[in-house]
């Protein structure tokens, strides 16, 4: 499994599927034991593909969540 799909799967399995459930880079990098710079690179790519979106949360900074398109992508491994 490549890092992009690992990150998508993490967001899906942890329920980060809406603005109200968005998560920061630090939490992702800690959970996946992955360098924060690498996580940012992956998120940027996934965002440009429409699989994740970002939201600015007051007092918490930029956070990311899985979009509907991202959910479909993750669920495609089960079909």
Write the CATH fold name.
Arc Repressor Mutant, subunit A
The structure class reads alpha+beta
Strands side by side in the biggest sheet? 1-2
Largest sheet descriptor: 2 strands, antiparallel
Furnish the topology, listing elements before pairings.
Layout (H helix, E strand, L loop, with lengths): L2 H11 L11 H8 L3 H13 L3 E6 L3 E6 L1 H8 L4
Antiparallel strand pairs: 1-2
Helix pairs in contact: 1-3, 1-4, 2-3
Structure, explained:
- The two termini are 16 Å apart.
- Strands 1-2 form a two-stranded antiparallel ribbon.
- The protein has four helices and two strands; from the N terminus they run H-H-H-E-E-H.
- The longest helix is centred in the middle third of the chain and has 13 residues, at 36-48.
- It is globular, with a radius of gyration of 11 Å.
- The model has no long low-confidence stretch (mean pLDDT 93).
- It has helices at 3-13, 25-32, 36-48, 68-75; strands spanning 52-57, 61-66.
- The chain is an alpha+beta fold.
- It has a single domain, classed as Winged helix-like DNA-binding domain superfamily/Winged helix DNA-binding domain (Arc Repressor Mutant, subunit A).
- Helix 2 (25-32) packs across helix 3.
